[in-house]
Amino acid sequence: MKRLIPGALLACAALVGASTAQAAFPDKPITLIVHFPAGASTDIIARTLAKEVGEDLGQAVIIQNKPGADGAIAAQEVVRAKPDGYTLLIATNSPMSGVPVMRKTPPYDPVKDFTPITDIGRYSFFLYTRADVPGNTLQEFVQHARKNPGKLTYGSGNVTGLLSFAYVAQASKIDILSVPYKGEPPMINDILGGHLDAGIATAGTGMPQVQAGKLKALATVLPARSPNAPTVPTMAEAGLGGFPIAPWLGLFGPAGMPADLVEQLNAAFKRAMDKPSVKQAMQVQDFMLTPSTPQALGALVKDQLESHRTLLRATGLEGSQN
Question: Cα 102 vs. chain centroid, distance in angstroms?
Fold first, then answer.
């Protein structure tokens, strides 16, 4: 019997050691990469969640803004990172659905090169025009654009804004110049400054300017009217239906992350999203939280990749970028 005791003690020690090793994560700050500049709606959402998750896990979650290239710069950094849970990406459909289809040579595979952790939510996008641009409805703006072919401009700070307006232009048969930006804030500033006529952007970026009387919101790409802007019609109500993509946000890590780390991060972000203070902050951004399993987010990535491919092909933007 005495001979069995040391073995039993060793087994117990091994179990305790394994438990301690698992419980050690995180033992240093976590970096959450955001592919938009500070002040953008996604940045605000990320910082709100990072604060709560950091307090939950006992380690700071540090935001690192890496805008540009429709999110591809940020996404590639995560692809190259160690799959240890310390480098994460909060990503929209821009880098995960748009870039892989728009690039002639995609810089990564959104399905194979990332580990899905949890769905975060859905954005409320609106079509904005400057207050002095003719047209108080989408159809009136379209008529104005038809009378001035090639003279009007629209900006886009992400793939959703680009695709949405490209769809509007194609469906309405208007000739309007596209001007891409690295994020929504500079695009909105250029509309306000008279350098652009219109743009499609999130509620958090554009609606404060609508409330100030500097912009007009003519339509939303949401399937139903936003409770925060009940007087603004949907694209379908404004005469343009059939919009096939969802402006979504999800949390990812590099490919090959251990299942236990994915589960721990999934649970921590879900707890954060369930807090009343976070829900209230998201309501201010007109952002709907949709936490999910990693598997559900993985399925969304595949589905939206094909939807974006269909729309980009129809608008002639598939493979349009180097």
Answer: 17
